């Protein structure tokens, strides 16, 4: 089948490349000519494990191409995916649909035969109706259907998620559209990936409900972590104890500095707004958003406490800046709030991140960057693990101890056993574990 993917951002690029890998012929379209030139030359605008090889292989085999010419890509496509950005609208948290509407208007005049226009961007309920209206008004004779097919790709594991999904959600009322969508995803049915065929509005809401539920799950365990610290319990063991209950499930129960990224913060807010607009508020999600916002600031306060209540003039070393490992994405990363708060309290920041430094430079100011984790720790008053990159999981703690001016390790991802850290002579703070207790020789004890 022939596919046009409008938007060569994260979702469009991964989805387009994976469809090509299934054997479909895919053209990815973007308005950014420099991005398209780079893609054609094999240079990707994002870091995603395995994606560069997959792009190269499918380009070589002639199934994947990149262009700025939307009309040409749409003209002979069986399915046109809209995978453009839907950022939070400044000020009110509603999803900004400008790019979706623009794409719909441009697609409208480029249609030449029956085509399924598929919303892959995360869009509020009813956006499919808007897209349909825009196309109908711009091109009354067009033969098309509008479907919704939300993505559930995790950054860092997006190819795996696309090729081995827990489920595929397709919202399409028109049987012709259902048929095209089934054909597109047929390679996955062989793997028995469940297909949830539903109405368009249901599919649109399903995406928000999934992300809000996961954000709530993370927030729940973060609050349990706070409680664990107060009552002397261990949140990792609580998580295991509840996660083995199949009704709860073990995933998304890692306590940490709060969720970030391109999806959870934006999608929870958009769901809150949609629900309020319809007079049916989702109070659990509203509370989740508020708790998560406060948590990032609380993490900065925890670091300040670990530095004896004062970071003015102190050098704080930060390991990990991206919102999670295996990505260079800095969008809504907890590190941003944490670093801003520390800087406001007078700290000097030195940071190391394996992939995120270029993006970090766009959003953070007055930071020194180190070449590796040990150089980062050199002469610092505290070392803080904010993102759980694999490269940070087996650091030589004795070496860190020697490099640090003050032996304080604040591990916001719980990646070290407290005993190992204490053995290396470091004072250790983690999240929701008894490790909050300082090492034995600590005068503050
Ligand atoms: C998410 C969804 O998982 C995906 O299905 C959706 O389509 C896009 O949004 P992503 O944002 O890439 O994917 O990251 P994810 O792995 O879900 O993590 C989101 C945030 O939650 C990160 O900040 C992560 O650090 C945090 N998190 C996740 C935790 O703090 N603890 C956990 O147990 C899991």
Automatic annotation (TrEMBL):
Sequence similarity: Belongs to the UDP-glucose/GDP-mannose dehydrogenase family.
Keyword NAD part of the UniProt annotation: yes
PANTHER family tied to this protein: UDP-GLUCOSE 6-DEHYDROGENASE TUAD
Main enzyme class: oxidoreductase
NCBIfam families, alphabetized: NDP-sugDHase
GO molecular function annotation: NAD binding; UDP-glucose 6-dehydrogenase activity
Keywords, ordered alphabetically: NAD, Oxidoreductase
Residues annotated as binding NAD(+): 30, 35, 86, 122, 155, 266, 331
EC number: 1.1.1.22
Name of the protein in question: UDP-glucose 6-dehydrogenase
Gene3D superfamilies, per database record: Cytochrome c1, transmembrane anchor, C-terminal, NAD(P)-binding Rossmann-like Domain
One annotated GO biological process: UDP-glucuronate biosynthetic process
Coiled-coil residues: none
Swiss-Prot/TrEMBL catalytic activity: UDP-alpha-D-glucose + 2 NAD(+) + H2O = UDP-alpha-D-glucuronate + 2 NADH + 3 H(+)
Highest taxon listed in the record's lineage: Bacteria
Database matches in Pfam families: UDPG_MGDP_dh, UDPG_MGDP_dh_C, UDPG_MGDP_dh_N
Domain UDP-glucose/GDP-mannose dehydrogenase C-terminal per the UniProt entry, residue ranges: 317-418
Pathway: Nucleotide-sugar biosynthesis; UDP-alpha-D-glucuronate biosynthesis; UDP-alpha-D-glucuronate from UDP-alpha-D-glucose: step 1/1
InterPro entries with a match to the protein in the record: 6-PGluconate_DH-like_C_sf, NAD(P)-bd_dom_sf, UDP-Glc/GDP-Man, UDP-Glc/GDP-Man_DH_C, UDP-Glc/GDP-Man_DH_C_sf, UDP-Glc/GDP-Man_DH_dimer, UDP-Glc/GDP-Man_DH_N, UDPglc_DH_bac
Residues engaged in binding substrate: 152-155, 207, 252-256, 260, 324
Residue numbers annotated as active site: 263
